[in-house]
Amino acid sequence: MLQKIDLPYSLNSLEPFYSQETLEIHYNILYTNYVENTNKTEEKLKLARKSNDFENIKCLEKELAFQGSGVILHELFFQNMAPARQSRPSERLMHQINQDFQSFSTFKSQFIASSKVVEASGWNLLVWVPKWKKLQILQCEKHQNLTLWGCKPLLVLDMWEHSYFLQYKANRAEYVGSFWNIVNWEEVSRRFEKVFENC
Predict the structure, then answer these.
(1) Above 80 in pLDDT, residue 196?
(2) Which of 4, 137, 142, 163 has its CA 20 to 30 A from that of 118?
(3) HSE on the CB side for 154, CA within 13 Å?
């Protein structure tokens, strides 16, 4: 059974860039639902295997992909934020960003532009692609769509409306701009170091 992760900060500590009200709903209700629904789906799959009844397997596996991806991406999202402070990528991650995107400012511009045009409900991600030994920015729709197989998420930004609408209304650009004040580059760099060393 999956268990909820604890937030590494208090619910009000991302203010004013990410409101306490939004984080409370996002973490305590929406993320909790993804964890619970993933566990329910896993139980249904166990029953299907036990009874050898796979009539609903397409629906169950689709549900597992959606709910489980929601759990994983939300945990990455919560962990790659931190109270506003001076933070920057590690030396190795910065080198890779400069190599793959020409400069940090170019990377940031592409990430912002990509985030603002995520269609419907989805995510924007900085990922490491081990096969190519390269960083890429990917849009991800409905948690589980539009990916490169084997990529490792490093920095994720939730672009579902529930992530920003209470505070920023329909102003996606302001939400995306504010996000850069609370990026936890130490955590993002830690993820990068781990996948870089294992490729």
Answers:
(1) yes
(2) 4
(3) 29
**Separation between Cα atoms, residue 122 and residue 91, nearest integer Å:** 30
Tokens read off for 138: 């990917």
Cis preceding-peptide flag for 8 (omega within 30 of 0): no
Tell me which residue has tokens 């990916």: 147
| Residue recorded with tokens 């990509």 | 114
Tokens of 112: 């912002």
DSSP-assigned beta bridge partners for residue 141: 122, 145
- Structural domains for the chain: 20-79 (1.10.287.990), 91-197 (3.55.40.20)
Dump the DSSP string for 149-186: TT-EEEEEEE-SGGGTHHHHTT-HHHHHHHHTTSB-HH
Count of beta carbons in the 10 Å neighbourhood of residue 73: 23
The amino acid at 168: Y
pLDDT one-digit tens code per residue, 170-185: 999 999 999 999 999 9
What pTM, to 2 d.p., does this model score?
0.94
Q: What whole-number percentage of the chain has pLDDT above 70?
A: 97
For tokens 């940031």, name the residue. Answer: 108
Q: What is the pLDDT of residue 150?
A: 81
pLDDT of residue 38: 97
DSSP letter assigned to residue 145: B
Query: Would you state the structure tokens that stand for residue 129, as one six-digit string?
Result: 């692609």
How open is the CA angle 46-3-43, to the nearest 5 degrees?
Answer: 15
